[in-house]
């Protein structure tokens, strides 16, 4: 016959194995940080826009350089609960308080070089 200690050990081992299999069921939240931007928002930018117009379209930048007021950095990071991380960056450059260039992970719209005033 099987002793009672052996039965208890088998039951505990089975419980431990079944609980470890449930670890993939644990909900992990996504942690977003920064400015969420989409390409459709960046497509609205045009050369010679004022800083106020850029803030209206994109919102305030996540990081402002205190030594260079003409370069704004927009950054978005999503740390997914399942390990699917995502990052996007956009650098907006001004000269004389007018938009002159954008760079980063977004494409420039074909009409970027056409000012809104025309």
UniProtKB/TrEMBL annotation:
Protein location: Cell outer membrane
Pfam families associated with the record: BamE (PF04355)
GO cellular component: Bam protein complex
Claim: Transmembrane is one of the keywords in the record: no
Membrane topology note: Lipid-anchor
Keyword RNA-binding: no
Signal peptide positions (record): 1-23
Record domain Outer membrane protein assembly factor BamE: where: 34-103
GO biological process, one term: Gram-negative-bacterium-type cell outer membrane assembly
Keywords, in A-Z order: Cell outer membrane, Lipoprotein, Membrane, Palmitate, Signal
Gene Ontology molecular-function annotations: protein-macromolecule adaptor activity
InterPro entries from the UniProt entry: BamE, BamE-like, BamE_dom
Protein's job: Part of the outer membrane protein assembly complex, which is involved in assembly and insertion of beta-barrel proteins into the outer membrane.
UniProt subunit comment: Part of the Bam complex.
HAMAP family assigned: OM_assembly_BamE (MF_00925)
UniProt similarity note: Belongs to the BamE family.
Entry protein name: Outer membrane protein assembly factor BamE
Species annotation: Alishewanella aestuarii B11
Gene assigned in the entry: bamE
